[in-house]
Amino acid sequence: QDYTWENHGFSLVNRLYSDIGHLLDEKFRMVYNLTYNTMATHEDVDTTTLRRALFNYVHCMYGIRYDDYDYGEVNQLLERSLKVYIKTVTCYPERTTKRMYDSYWRQFKHSEKVHVNLLLMEARMQAELLYALRAITRH
Q1: Per-domain residue ranges for the chain?
Q2: Residue 1: pLDDT band with limits 50, 70, 90
Q3: How far is 128 from 32, CA to CA, in rounded Å?
């Protein structure tokens, strides 16, 4: 909560390696904002809340929590099988199987499930960067 990408990580990484912060930020934002505005068979759906829940759930697993986020959304939007999948993909990617991938959101398109995976990996990368950059700041 006291060390975020937007407020601290971005500027520090830019100081350490010129312009890489802009490239990373663009990558994080592109994946975060990517949407077809669909969910399974439903069209014109605002998926912002779901994308935020996925991103914040990964950060939460890495010990990063935000005071201004209602974590009740995570429990409302992410079913148990999806949470198990998220934990496996982000913490133990070598244990991820096709069976696990198939076990959540069965009615969703593969493109939507692939987007979930992209979100998870970018959230993990950002969390890892935050820990590394915070360690550099403290040193």
Answers
A1: 8-138
A2: low
A3: 17
